[in-house]
Each structure stands twice: as C-alpha cells, then as structure tokens.
Give the backbone structure.
Amino acid sequence: MTTKYRIYDTFNRRSVSNHRSLKTAVIAEDKFSRSIRRSNPGNSYIPTRIESWDIEFDEWVQVPIEDVHDAEQQYLNA
C-alpha cells in the first residue's frame, strides 16, 4: 500500500496538493511557497504543513518535522 501525502494550507484550511512520496511533497511545498512570494509583494506567505494519511485512524496526520528535514536534505543534495 502506498502512503499518501498532501500539502495542507493551515490558514485557509484546504488541501493544496496530493503526492505519492514525501520527497515530491517537499518539492511541491517549496514551489508553492515560492509562487506565493513571487505573486505577492513583501514578505507574503501561507502557512502550510505536510500531512500523511493514517490508515489505522482513517485521517490525515502531520508528518514529523525530522522526516520533512531528511526529505529536504535528499532534495537539496540530489
């Protein structure tokens, strides 16, 4: 079974995008943040978090920050 990931906009309470791997979710979150900064003046941002689908509890849960940092390092070092 494949784990699902999503970028969740905590300000507007909506899902921004869905992904099959944590690495692609990290890349998409980075692109989303850059697009917000590019299209809005100043220090604009939208707070987001990466979540994964918990099959046991049938709900979205936040991915631990350590796992996100590991995926970011893999992305940056590739």
Summary: The two ends are 26 Å apart (CA to CA).
